[in-house]
Hints:
Blueprint: E1 5-6, H1 11-26, E2 31-33, E3 37-40, H2 50-64, E4 69-73, E5 80-84, E6 92-96, E7 99-102, H3 112-123, E8 128-129, E9 136-137, H4 169-174, H5 178-186, E10 194-198, E11 202-208, H6 213-222, H7 251-265, E12 274-281, E13 290-295, H8 298-307, H9 316-320, E14 324-328, H10 338-353, H11 357-362, E15 370-374, H12 376-394, H13 399-415, H14 420-428, H15 432-448, H16 457-469, H17 474-490, H18 495-502
Antiparallel strand pairs: 1-3, 2-3, 4-5, 6-7, 8-9, 10-11, 11-12, 12-13, 14-15
Helix pairs in contact: 1-5, 2-3, 7-10, 8-12, 13-16, 13-17, 14-15, 15-16
The protein binds zinc ion.
The site of zinc ion has 7 residues, from helix 5.
Amino acid sequence: MKVEILRYNDVWFDNGLIVFSNILDEIEEEYELSENSLTPLQLNYEYGDEEKFTKNLSIHIKGLIQNIIIDTEDKVTKERKQVKKDFVLIQEKKKIGGKVAFKENIFSEDKTDSVIQEVFTNLKGDKKKCFLCGRSFKSNYKNLQQASYPFVTKIRSLSGIRSGEDLKLSEYIKDYCPQCYLLGVLAWVDSTLIYRTIPGHKSILILPNMEDLTMLKKLKQSYLNQLNNNNRYGNIRIDIDKRETENTPDKYSTLVSFYENFIRYTEPNLNCQNWYIIEIPLSGSVKNPKYFNVFFDNRIVNVLTKLIRKDDPMLFYRGFIKETYFFNNDTKKGLRNFDYEKILQEGFCQSFINDDFSKFARYFLPLQGGHIGLTKHARQILDKLIYEWRIKPMNKLSEEDVKTLQLAGLTIANLSENHVSLFYKLEKAKNPHDFYKAMQEITRRFVIDETKRNVYPGSISNVMDLVVTNQDDPKAFEDIKNILLIYASIKGYKKTEKKEANNE
Ligand SMILES: [Zn+2]
């Protein structure tokens, strides 16, 4: 019997397969890894030395259990105790002496040996055929359950199920081989699983999605030093040599904060643009995870790379996102609106990943009761970001034009202060004609209130010239409008804001 494990084309199992190959490395079991398969060469477990193989395997699996357990202090008794990491969808038994006990026997240290033996005994034979990987086997170790595949509730969409075979779901789940079980359950204890838990709400997992197993293995190894697995609520390091971890507000900000360090510190030839986000709810008896496939377009990777300059990095997440605040106009409500800041951070990250500049610009707009504020550093990064992301690829605006937009933005901000609706009229302008009408309404305020400072009427007519020049290019028009909206909304940073903001 030849044991060749083929690539699953399923992110969960393929990541589990790499965890398995890492264990084979540890126990010095030779294997061949190619783009599409993993083939153990010596097959100790086939030729006599099965006991040695399974023993070694279980020792290393036991060692990996620590990846899903955190040592912590009981808030009430102050005693040391263990907790299971929140994202793990493996059920727990009652703790014994403060130690986590899993219902899945493979992660129950005194039973790992016997589970592994059973797994390999059950593989030998050809009574059944696995619905997922196609291999023949004697009998299953377990049916397909969430413990080895979190998406079990969505199993119909699996590529392994051939259409036309009209079996009931329950039949498929029974024809699930011990190899798939093992790889699926190992994916949980992967030390390169990227995670973030928002307490009381949800956990977010991030996995790389790669079509070449050899690249996937190298890639996963490459970012291990960017993670800090001893932390319960997240493992993305603020910086490679810091133990602190990022407290990202939601899934896209989590991905961006990871990806920024990834581009910064991983060999460029190991680039991975395709990532998989899994969202696991923390409440409810049935935990239905959602998944999102995210692809970083070349344009976005280029912008991020341009911002990460070696000597003086201007980081999108660690600079711009983390130093952009939302201030309440009425400071009796507190200086900053932290809830809305989280929405902003997530919105900026999502629209940036999706290369959606209009949506990105909309997040800057003032709301009733509050406005955005940036530190000087964040403002510099924003200028650079707008330049690399929109102005340079557009290839239509000179340096002078950009200054015009900034001055006009400041002018609009000062003229329309306390008139938020004017911003939204400008934002809704779908063509140069509407744009002109909205600008007229704003400039009328100049006549009404001549005491306004920092108003440059010339810049407004210059912007109108810019719009007229580019009126036949709808994309350029949209970009010019959105850049203007951003500059009008941020109004220039206030020097005091960073100081105040740091005093939360
Ligand atoms: Zn299988």
